[in-house]
Amino acid sequence: MSIPDHISPIVAYRVWQWDSLGLKSLNNQQWFPGCALEANTSRCRKEHAAPKEGCTCGVYAAKDLAHLRRSGYAEYGVHGEVYLWGTVVEHRLGWRAQYAYPKSIVLPPDTIPFRMSEVESRLESLLLYGVDISVTPAASPPIRLWSKQSGLDMAGFDWLVEKRKRWYSYREQERRLRPPTAWRCLASASAWWHLPTPTTCMS
Ligand SMILES: [Zn+2]
């Protein structure tokens, strides 16, 4: 993916859905690796070049991540920086652009699959975009997992492995502490058996 040399792209913020095919807008529009997403008029259903001043068309992006968080969008998937260029219409909190391409991607903990084999295959879909990828522990700054220059970053990888270790050990502990379901059923049946026999009130 190359952005034309004579253009200084704006860097803004977006949220994407992330699955085995890569990134999608929240309205399910696919973002293809290596291809700029070009705005169309499917939103405004008018015949003009998108985006147009005073209209609703264009690729949307926020001026800062805090706005995505305040508006609740950040809960819907992965987020990150995005390059915007071409015709760009500015609004108070964001932009509508003609072209867009991801610059970096941050993976909140609840978007990462638990099984490492699944993590690997899902990450492969992201590596194709050629962007930096980070993971973000709760209430902490993001930790780099993949650099487009130098590849896998052990800081992010170690965090992923450690998080899984803790999860598996918690599940193991929980399994040991909780009696199997069949045993619990027997226990409650036995408790019921020892209740005093109901008496019938007869006048
Ligand atoms: Zn329009």
Give the tally of β-strands.
Answer: 11
List of distinct ligands in this structure? zinc ion
Helicity range: 25-40%
What count of structural domains?
Answer: 1
Oligomer: single chain
Q: Could you describe the largest sheet, including whether it forms a barrel?
A: 7 strands, antiparallel
* CA-CA gap between termini: 90 Å
In terms of per-residue confidence, which ranges show pLDDT below 50 for 5 or more consecutive residues?
Answer: 182-203
Please write the string of helix (H) and strand (E) elements.
Answer: EEEEEHEEEHEEEHH
- How large a portion of the residues is in β-strands, by DSSP E? 25-35%
Average pLDDT level: 83
Main traits of this protein?
alpha+beta, four-stranded mixed β-sheet, 4 helices, binds zinc ion
Describe this structure in words.
The chain has one domain. By secondary structure, the protein is of the alpha+beta class. The protein has helices at about 65-70, 115-125, 155-175, 180-195; strands at about 10-20, 20-25, 30, 35-40, 60, 80-90, 95-100, 105, 130-135, 145, 150. The model is unreliable at about 180-203 (pLDDT under 50). The chain has four helices and eleven strands, in the order βββββαβββαβββαα. Bound molecules: zinc ion.
Quick overview:
With 203 residues, the protein is α+β, with helices and mostly antiparallel strands. It has helices at 65-70, 116-127, 154-177, 181-193, and strands at residues 10-19, 22-24, 30-31, 37-38, 59-62, 78-90, 94-102, 104-107, 132-135, 143-147, 151-152. It is built from four helices and eleven strands.
